[in-house]
Give the backbone structure.
Amino acid sequence: GESEGKDNKGLFPASVTFSTDLHSMGQFIQDGSRIMFETVVTFGESDKDITIEE
């Protein structure tokens, strides 16, 4: 929402694909404050059908 990360409070979640977003978010990641953490999610092949509900 609009107030995520406002007044240096809360989290600002952002999805980044580095080769695509290198210019915009990449600059922020490289030059921004060092108060970040990242979560890497990797999906592999599955022999089961998986549905993620919205």
